[in-house]
Design brief:
Layout (H helix, E strand, L loop, with lengths): L5 H6 L3 H32 L3 H4 L1 H20 L5 H20 L4 H29 L5 H30 L1 H22 L11 H8 L4 H20 L1 H9 L3 H28 L1 H22 L3 H29 L4 H30 L1 H22 L10
Helix pairs in contact: 2-6, 2-7, 2-8, 4-6, 4-15, 5-6, 5-8, 6-15, 7-8, 7-12, 7-14, 9-15, 10-13, 10-15, 10-16, 12-13, 12-14, 13-14, 13-16, 14-15, 15-16
Amino acid sequence: MSEWTLAEKREAPAWGAVISMTLGVFGLVTAEFLPASLLTPMAADLAISEGVAGQAVTATAVVALLTSLLVVAATRRFDRRHVLLSLSILLIISNLLVAFAPDLPLLLAGRVLLGAALGGFWTMSAAVMMRLVPEALIPRALAIMFSGVSAATVLAAPVGSYLGDIVGWRSVFLIAAGLGVLTLIVQFAALPALPPAGSARLRTLIDVLRRPGVGLGMIAISLVFTGHFALFTYIRPFLETVTGVGISLVSGILLGFGIANFLGTYLGGLLLSWNARFTMTVMPLAMGILGLGLAASGSAPLVDAVLVALWGLAFGAVPVAWSTWITRTVPDEAETGGGLIVAAVQLAIALGAAVGGAIFDVTGAAGVFATGGFVLLAAALLIGLGVQARTAAVAA
């Protein structure tokens, strides 16, 4: 395998490598999202409450947060290809541990390994994309990669809940392990050598965080994802206990979310090319309104299905928008900037799942959705008032 220089990669886009990164996203996010669609049977099998089972999401997020802050400095001398392949191996082991977990501690151990894989992959993803395609094609490459998130949402939520009802939740995690094996094979074949391009140290995190607008952006990201994951982690219990639908309709509504999320990824790419700040502001605003609408709708399956689909459409644009924002805001330290974004997002996921679980056990799912909705409205206000969005470079 040839060891391309940075200039050569930017002149000739490596779309095969981009697809392999997309598959990596697909495998990781599928594993990350599975508890949201399997929370009820997981809790019943392990004899714990849904709120406690939701801490499987929290464990993943906490470790991903720590990994995102340390991985760039810890691996600064390693070829990024080798690091990415190692993270795919962690994904496989994680899913196997969860599939065979006899109790909560081993389940959490598997989710800890997934957190390490997630934190490492997401930290490096934007910077790797910058090395695989020319600058003008970075938003397109990121949109392709994040389509893996949307595809995972389609699979992990409706298909995960449906298959879990037929073959059991453990078998679903075994299937996820198989996806990890496929990811490893494709990445091994497609990723070029990616020698370390910098000498980032832990101090670099602080230096980047102190740059104008970066700290405020991280707070905004945390609010957006806290609100979203407070809602998403407990979507199945909400649909079952508040909307009052069975497993077939739960799967159908989650499928609608996933398809809309997929479309939202490409909608986000289009809106970003028109007005980045508008895109970054209006999406959490819409999600907040939808979250409050769901909390207030009561037992109205058709209304809830439409609101959930619109929520998926709005969220689809969010990861593309913030990844594009970091490549424009700190292009010289994209790995470190990516690590900060991952840390902010994973902290938000941990807070969303943990606080959401506590609220769920006290007030039920409607209380979780109302709280998440207000957090998202606060995020939209902060972004609209303070976060700067730079324009993209224009291709010649």
